[in-house]
User: Which sequence fits this backbone?
């Protein structure tokens, strides 16, 4: 089916010191999905990540949390996609986005990396930008020189709650995405996640 998602990738940095930081918002979504679906995820050395599988809308979908640092995410995505023969347009990469307000989630296919190190490496490793992105808004600190510290710190309790609301809105559209109905998924997300 056109654009049916076969692989969901949650971007983040490894280790407990990064687990609660804004930069790991993509990984938070996959972790939440694993809990909801009562699934498991386990280390796979050949994929440089933690891997799992779920069934949504009667369709199988693989899950991936790269275990290298953000700027090496592409290595993990490429290895997994190559092994399972998943085309780029059937991959959904979930990542934090500075350009979206806290509490907002947006879905799109293709586009630039916007300076995001994870997307930059995925573009390079896959040799294309033609994959789906689920952008989780984390807001912007206001000053460019504050971005590095901002993304590598935990959000306030209020912001964390808003981010989780947008993640929950995004989780609701995954069955449509896995079934290949990207238009329905996009319309639903963009009307429920302000």
Assistant:
């Amino acid at each position: 089916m056109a654009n049916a998602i076969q692989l969901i990738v949650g971007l983040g940095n490894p280790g407990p010191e990064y687990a609660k930081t804004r930069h790991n918002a993509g990984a938070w979504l996959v972790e939440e999905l694993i809990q909801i679906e009562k699934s498991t995820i386990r280390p796979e050395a050949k994929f440089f990540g933690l891997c799992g599988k779920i069934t949504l809308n009667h369709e199988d979908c693989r899950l991936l949390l790269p275990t290298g640092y953000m700027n090496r995410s592409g290595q993990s995505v490429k290895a997994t996609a190559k092994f399972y023969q998943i085309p780029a347009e059937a991959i959904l990469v979930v990542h934090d986005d500075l350009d979206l307000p806290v509490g907002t989630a947006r879905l799109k296919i293709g586009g630039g990396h916007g300076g995001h190190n994870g997307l930059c490496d995925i573009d390079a490793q896959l040799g294309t930008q033609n994959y789906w992105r689920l952008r989780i808004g984390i807001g912007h600190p206001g000053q460019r020189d504050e971005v590095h510290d901002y993304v590598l710190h935990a959000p306030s309790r209020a912001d964390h709650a808003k981010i989780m609301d947008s993640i929950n809105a995004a989780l609701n559209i995954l069955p449509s995405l896995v079934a290949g109905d990207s238009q329905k998924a996009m319309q639903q997300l963009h009307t429920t996640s302000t």
Q: What stands out?
A: The two ends are 29 Å apart (CA to CA).
